Amino acid sequence: MEPSVEVIKSGFADRFARFVCFFIFSTAGMGAIGITLLAEPLANYYSDKDFILSHQQSIENLEKLRTQREELLKNLDNPSVWQRAAVGNYNHDLTRDDPANSTDQPDQPDQANPTNLTNLTNPPELPIISPDLQKAIDNISQPLGQDQPSRLEEATKILAANTIYQIMLFFLGAALVILSLTCFTRRK
After folding, report:
1. Residue among 169, 153, 154 at smallest CA distance from 28
2. What distance in Å separates the CA atoms of residue 16 and residue 9, rounded to the nearest whole number?
């Protein structure tokens, strides 16, 4: 006696449904176990990555500053280089020191023209930075790698900080794997 077509189709549908359930439950269980075991190393990886990015950025800033200082030292006798450095690095306003805009006359002849910076023993004092400008500089100089942590990064840090969550997730994952192995394996 050969099995009918309906029996073969229902047997195939049953096997396929068992396979899909086995695949879903075992994958979820193994994923939960994997996440539990990798939570602390991932949290350490993310914190190390942030640390490295911040230090790389500070090294780049120091390299930029060093090259600027080397250029300044090469051009000690050029007053326009000093003016550009004062404007670029210290936010010095040259129009404020312009004698044409000034109404008061200085007492000493060396300070009559502050754009003449050849006297390196007494460089002109630079103005105090306004609070709004300081906020803008602080916002610009914020590290780029610390914008917003991803959801995975936040979840791994929370999971790594709470060992009770790790233990619960591990046992739930193990229960899903055991459930899939006992209930959804092929029956003979």
Report:
1. 169
2. 10
